Predict the structure.
Amino acid sequence: MKVYSCESHIDHALDMFVAETKEFPIMDKLPDGEKLSTKCSYCEEHATYIVSSK
Ligand SMILES: [Zn+2]
């Protein structure tokens, strides 16, 4: 599972990730090249972070 998040939804994204996967979330900044083509999972902003496990 991967969750994309903007600056304002990163706390929410981490909470949701843990609730759904029961795994420890790893947060990374999206590479600049992917920012403009990737939307936050919770709003219409461009994503800044990607949350995944391992
Ligand atoms: Zn957002």
User: Anything to note?
Assistant: Residues 5-6, 8-9, 40, 42-43, 45 surround zinc ion (CB under 6 Å). The helical segments are 10-21, 32-35.
